[in-house]
Amino acid sequence: MLNLSSISIKKRVKEDELYTLKTLKTPDAGKVLARWLLGFMFMFIVCLFLPWQQNIRGEGKVTALTPENRPQTVESAIAGRINEWKVMEGEFVERGDTILLLSEIKDKYFDPKLLERLGEQLLAKENALKSKKNKAEALGDQIAALEQALKVKLNQTKNKLLQTKLKLTSDSVDFQAEKVRFSNFQNQYERNKVLYEAGNIALTKFQDIESKLQESRMKQVSAENKFLQSKAEVMNARIDITGVTAEYRDKINKAVSDRNATLSEVYESEAEISKLKNEIANMQIRSQQYYLQAPQSGYIVKALKAGIGETIKEGEPVVSIIPESLDKAVELYVKAMDVPLITQGRKVRIEFDGWPALQFSGWPSVSVGSFGGIVKVIDRMDAKNGKFRILITPDPNDEEWPEQVRLGSGAKGWIMLDDVPIWYEIWRQLNGFPPSLYESQTQPSDEKKNDK
């Protein structure tokens, strides 16, 4: 029917009775399908504008927030042989409790009286040091005495020099006087000789004058000898001053040298004493290391060494321990594209392995069996495969985390962000494809494994 006329014949003609019209009629199923499709499209468009809370999904495990509360291994500071175990796996230990007892394996420390013998050596060295210090003090006193004796001796020799100079002056005057007197007698002798030869004086008088001349010559020679002797004494006095100075300086220098050598021995003894004290302190500390103690209160998780008589190396882990007080946290790993949206203090919903939960990430209000958390730490560099680690702590305003949750248990988390329309979140997910760069970082190591 083209419906060209304004007069309708639909009321007069029964279309259902005519096969041709019945065949050309639009099927009811198509209309129903079209209505359903339009309804679904309308519902989809409406849903696109519904509010959706952005969330970031991450997976990880339970850990401790502070490093000191995380599981750790207890290492032996020295090499030794296991003599006795004091604990069992799963046992609780207090800080300072003995875990095991070690014995020595180095021949240097085999002597059971090593500390006593080192103490005897130290005492002997201290006594020797005391004697050397006394010797150095005695040499110092000797040096002071020699310097004082040098001053006294120099004063004596200088006084002697002064006396000899005065005597030299006196003998010089006497010598000059005798020379004048001898000259006078000689002149008198020459005149009387002329008179005697002329017969003007008697022989006895001439002989008397000649005798006085000889006597004057003898006095002159004696005065000259005294003068020369005094001159020699002055020279000897000057030589004595130089000799005394040299003699005492030699003694003083020898004493100073002996004192310096003694002081050198003192310093060497002090160094040896310091070394011995260091050895004794090290030995005392080493003897304490024979008892491997718990660094903090906690539970013995696993013994990494077993048996009696097994040797361990320095720094080798012996047992693993988990602290008593735990500030539990969850470390989640999220994609790099999601990190810019995460800030500290964001709310998180967490699902622990072993706790049944019905989680609606976009509508956390209807989630069942999940627990609340808060973003505490966001790593500033990637952890592995381009993912970043986020540390989550319990939300004080939410239900407490189960006490039975153990460290290392698996966990899933949804970091709650802002409310946005659903279409915006779909658009963000479609435009946030992660780059393939992170996957290529692991290829070299895989190739090395294949080469091996």
Please, could you describe this protein's structure?
With 452 residues, the protein is α+β, with helices and mostly antiparallel strands. It folds into four domains: 48 residues, no CATH class; 138 residues, Efflux pump adaptor protein, beta barrel domain (Elongation Factor Tu (Ef-tu), domain 3, Beta Barrel), CATH 2.40.30; 61 residues, RNA polymerase II/Efflux pump adaptor protein, barrel-sandwich hybrid domain (OB fold (Dihydrolipoamide Acetyltransferase, E2P), Beta Barrel); 176 residues, Orthogonal Bundle (Helix Hairpins). 49% of the residues lie in helices and 20% in strands. The protein contains seven helices and 14 strands. The strands form three sheets. A six-stranded antiparallel β-barrel has the order 1-10-13-12-11-14. InterPro entries: MFP (IPR050739). This is HlyD family efflux transporter periplasmic adaptor subunit. Keywords: Coiled coil, Membrane, Transmembrane, Transmembrane helix.
Give a quick summary of the entry.
The chain is of the alpha+beta class and 452 residues long.
Provide the fold topology.
Layout: H1 19-24, H2 28-48, E1 51-64, E2 72-75, E3 80-85, E4 92-93, E5 98-103, H3 114-197, H4 203-289, E6 291-293, E7 298-303, E8 311-312, E9 317-323, E10 328-334, E11 347-352, E12 371-378, E13 388-394, E14 410-421, H5 422-430, H6 437-440, H7 443-451
Antiparallel strand pairs: 1-10, 1-14, 2-9, 3-5, 3-8, 4-7, 5-6, 7-9, 10-13, 11-12, 11-14, 12-13
